[in-house]
Each structure stands twice: as structure tokens, then as C-alpha cells.
What does this fold into?
Amino acid sequence: MDSIIVTGNGPLQGQIPIAGAKNACLTLMPATLLSEEPLTLTNAPRLSDIKTMTTLLQSLGSEASSLQDGKVISLSSHDLTSHTADYEIVRKMRASNLVLGPMLARLGQAVVSLPGGCAIGARPMDLHITALEALGAEIELKDGYLHAKAPGGLKGAVHELRFASVGATENTVMAATLAKGTTVLKNAAREPEIVDLVRCLRKMGAQIEGEGSSTITIEGVDRLHGATHPVVTDRIELGTYMIAPAIAGGEVECLGGKLELVQSFAEKLDAAGVSVEETDTGLKVARRNGRVQAVDVKTEVFPGFPTDLQAQMMALMCTAEGEATLDETIFENRFMHAPELTRMGADIEVHGGQARVRGVERLKGAPVMATDLRASVSLILAGLAAEGETRVSRVYHLDRGYENVVAKLRGVGAQIERVKEE
Ligand code: EPZ
It folds into this structure.
């Protein structure tokens, strides 16, 4: 198992290229199941989660290959040989459940293992199930697997999600593209990854309107054709690297970054005394004065403050001037990074879904442990501003969502290396 060692090394300087979005690619890839023709995704991120999705699609009979050093993914689902998403794959990555809607729409049946809980929360699939049932699917849980069928095909319907779930929106939109008639999905999620999915589906011949708003209307069609689509920029990777110069000092340009993807987050950085400037090639970020100011944050669905940037923001607040309150409203157990940051000398109190962070002058390096994807990168960010060495273990979490983190941070002057642990 690898660890990453970071030594606080003062201000950062330079450019960091931002990759395509993991959470867009993970919903774009299952769209191949909706068509017999090839789907090519460009600007794809090179991550272990993408490999897991590739393995899953291949287990269903899709042909999947990556080109240009993994930046291009070529998919074809002409002859599907299975409609079962196996527990052994699904347990590694819950986004595997995004094959449910497309398989049901294309094959009229699907068997998908329930992912089970994860470090940040219970994460049930009830919203996916009720939405697909509204389209006429019959779904039952047997031996840990969802058995779904729609013998006569899916039928369009008006359905309102109890909560604007990203995954339930993606599964329902994909399923509705081949349903008979019109589907109106209300209280739909508005995340940029969903907008990207709809743009790709439209290129495949789908009839969809309203992406990015809370109401998405899908006119079912008989079949979808092939397409080529560039994966949207990863706004969470972008936000993560925007925090690097804020926490360590200096100035970094995030290449490919767009303000519209991180508006609410950038507003909080601005309030904390961090300048965010749009350039021709991305976003330039720099700390205005000596120390950032504490700001309160509440995570919300898009366009609110993203829960996937909460851990990174907590790391920044650890050395801010004053006291910050962070309210986590999306996941019930997403403060696992707090005790690890406390090991580095942070002053944090957690009460249920709220954390109170009193800024300290300086963090101190320590051995810490990654518990989930975003928690792992928050520890690396804290290490950039800490005195001495921080050793982050279990970085396999990181590989799921960040490509080349050591090279990218080293490129702007960070002292960081990856080591094999015995
Ligand atoms: C997506 O997960 C992202 N993952 C998550 O990113 C992200 O944190 C999350 O959206 C919220 O923005 C991918 O896109 C692959 P949800 P998803 O359905 O679709 C509850 C990362 O770090 N809920 O919007 O699973 C659920 O328990 C990951 O990259 C139900 O109760 O998120 C949670 O509390 C982590 N029933 C809330 O809704 C359901 O049927 C939000 O979940 C579905 C969800």
C-alpha cells in the first residue's frame, strides 16, 4: 500500500491542468448501453474508478478500450451478453448502479447488486427505484440484488424526486430516453455532470430539455445512435487545486477551470480573502493577504456549495483567522477527516452534521490516514501548509478521483512524494 509524504514548503507558483470529470465520465460511460453504435468519450480522466466502470461494462458484453494514454475511451454495446451487475464489481464502486436505468431501457430487464453502505453514509437507492417504478418498471430486492424488469418496455411519466439526487436523476434520464412517450422529471438534480450527460445523450439522438434546471423533460425515441463527446472539466478537482495556493500561499493557475462550474465555492474563497480571477486559459488563484479569514459553509445540492469540496474547505479553515462553522447537509457521516486534521494540531469540534473549526497559526506534520476520496486530498492540502512532514497512508482512496496528484503539485513547487509502505 502506498503513502504520500508532503513537507510544508512555502508558497506555490505555476499552472495545474484540470482533467475531465470523474463524476461525469461515470455516468457517460453507461450511456453506451442505450445504443448498438459506438460511443467515444474524449478528455477522459485516468482514474481507478474509470477502470472499474470499464470492467463492469465489459462484464455486460460491451467492448471498451482506452486510447491516447487513457484520455479517449471507446465503447460499443452492440451485443450485450449479460444484464447482471455483479456484487464483486459493484462493491468496489457504488456508481456501478448507473447501469440500472440504461440496461432496463435497452433490454427490458436488469439485475444490479445493491452497493451497500459507504464511509460517508448509508446511501440507499430508494429514489432510483421509485423513479424507475414510475416509468413502469417492476423492481424487487432478492439476495442483495435489485431485480428490475419492464417486459412491455418503459413508459413516460411525470415523477417528482423526493430529494434532488444526482444518481437517481442520471438513471431516470437515461432510462426515459428509450421509454414510450414523455417523461417529466421534477426536482431533478442540476449538477454540471448531468448537463454533460444530457448533452451527450442529445448527440446520440435523445430528445431532452431542461438540463441544469429542476425540471427535465424527455421525449422517448425508438433507438439511439453513436456519438463522440468530450467529458466536462472536473469541478471538484478544480476546487481542490484552487485551495492549494490559498492554504500554502502563492499563485496558481488551474488550466481549463471555469468559474461557472465553481461559482458558490469561489464566492466563499473570495469572502475568505482569496482572489479568483478568470484568465483565457483557466482560473488564477492567490491569497490576498497573510492569512485567510474564517467563513461559514453549508453544503447543498448544485448550485450550492458542493459536499465534495467540504473536506478541502475544512483543511483551509484549520489555519484561518477566526472560527468557521461547516454544515454538512448531504451526507450523514462526512467528517472522517476531522480527527486526522486534529492530529496535525487543528482545533475542530464535530457535533452531528456540524463542525466548528477554530483557526490555528500553523499545523504540524504527522502520520495521518485517508478514509475516503475527498478526506484523503484534504490531508494532502493540510500537509502543504504544515510544519514538517505529513505522511498520508491508504492513498488508494485518492487514486479513485485524482490523477497524478504528486506530479501536479510538484509542478507548482510542492515538496511531495509517493512511497511504498512495507
Ligand atoms: C454523486 O453521488 C457523486 N458521485 C458524489 O461524489 C457526490 O457527493 C454526490 O453525487 C452529491 O453531490 C458520483 O457522481 C459518482 P446523491 P450520488 O444520489 O449520486 C441520498 C465523490 O467524492 N439518497 O445525490 O450517490 C444519499 O444517501 C462522490 O466524487 C437517498 O436517500 O449522490 C445522500 O445522502 C462522493 N436515496 C443524498 O441523497 C437515493 O435513492 C445525495 O445522494 C439516492 C440518494
